[in-house]
């Protein structure tokens, strides 16, 4: 009887999770893609703003170099200028006072961060535009909201699997339950990697439209690859695909943007 009850509860949870995921759809105003998202645009902005102070504190707060911070904001604002009126977000660009960590990331709703460690590795405005354009694109593509929707689905399905398979009287059932959770985590990691490549493509378009040479992102990949040759790879690697695996995709995207060749008058 206990087994039957567990199976019924597990089935209800699974059905509800799938239904919620399938009905949480929205069309992206920039990409035109129909997406399954777990947040409204207003909720994304709220979460980003509420989370920003915590993220700043984890990376040493804001960098005291006002000139460098202003440059980050200037390049970021130039990137979003052509599409600013279409976006439901209020972008803010932050330079973090962490000279050791090489990283850049964005929160839902428009909070974009780059550490001093990565910033100091970049030698041109085009390279900075490549990094910021990539992070801006995560927000535009609503990857955070998509990830939350997928995580909610995964949590529901793995929760159902836990209820259905876990038997306190059978130690082997714990291993099966743990495997269900692991599978869910791997699914979300796969989606995350695909999101990174999409952000590369979108970011290249933003950089090119703003007048920056998109090939500068290839230089950024070289910088990151060189930084990763040591014993302690950049934190950037933990959330982004390896630069060596991205360069070919970036080159393909650039060729698509400029089939006749990249113009010579772009900002390097």
Distance between the termini: 70 Å
Indicate the overall shape.
globular
CA radius of gyration: 21 Å
Total beta strand runs: 5
How do the strands line up in the largest sheet?
Answer: 3-5-4
Q: Secondary-structure element order, as H and E?
A: HEEHHEEEHHHHHHH
- Biggest sheet character: 3 strands, mixed
What proportion of the residues is helical, as a percent range?
A: 55-70%
Number of helices: 10
Overall SS class: mainly alpha
Beta strand %: 5-15%
* pLDDT < 50 stretches: 12-23, 173-191
* Overall average pLDDT: 77
Short précis:
A three-stranded mixed β-sheet has the order 3-5-4. The radius of gyration is 21 Å and the shape is globular.
Task: Describe the protein's architecture and organization.
The chain is mainly alpha-helical. The chain has helices at residues 2-22, 41-58, 66-80, 116-119, 125-140, 143-165, 172-209, 216-227, 236-239, 243-257; strands at 25-27, 34-36, 92-96, 104-107, 111-115. Helix 1 packs antiparallel against helix 6, helix 5 packs across helix 8 and helix 8 packs antiparallel against helix 10. Mean pLDDT is 77; it is low at 12-23 and 173-191.
Based on the model shown, name its key terms.
268 residues; mainly alpha; three-stranded mixed β-sheet; 7% strand; globular
């Amino acid at each position: 009887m206990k087994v039957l009850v567990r199976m019924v509860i597990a089935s209800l949870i699974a059905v509800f999770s799938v239904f919620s995921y399938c009905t949480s759809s929205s069309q992206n105003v920039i990409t035109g893609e129909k997406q399954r998202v777990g947040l409204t645009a207003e909720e994304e902005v709220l979460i980003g703003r509420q989370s920003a102070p915590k993220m700043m504190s984890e990376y040493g707060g804001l960098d005291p170099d006002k000139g460098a911070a202003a440059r980050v904001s200037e390049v970021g604002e130039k990137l979003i200028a052509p599409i600013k009126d279409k976006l439901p977000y209020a972008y803010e660009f932050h330079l973090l006072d962490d000279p050791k960590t090489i990283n850049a990331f964005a929160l839902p709703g428009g909070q974009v961060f780059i550490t001093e460690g990565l910033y100091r590795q970049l030698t041109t405005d085009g390279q900075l535009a490549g990094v910021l354009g990539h992070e801006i694109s995560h927000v535009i593509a609503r990857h955070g909201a998509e990830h939350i929707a997928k995580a909610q689905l995964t949590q529901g399905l793995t929760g159902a699997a836990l209820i259905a398979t876990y038997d306190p009287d059978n130690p082997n059932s714990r291993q099966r339950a743990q495997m269900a959770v692991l599978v869910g985590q791997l699914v979300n990691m796969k989606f995350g990697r695909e999101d990174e490549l999409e952000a590369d493509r979108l970011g290249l378009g933003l950089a090119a439209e703003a007048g920056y040479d998109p090939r500068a992102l290839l230089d950024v990949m070289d910088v990151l690859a060189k930084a990763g040759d040591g014993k302690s790879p950049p934190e950037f690697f933990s959330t982004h695909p390896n630069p060596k695996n991205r360069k070919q995709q970036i080159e393909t995207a650039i060729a698509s943007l400029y089939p006749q060749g990249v113009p010579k008058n772009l900002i390097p």
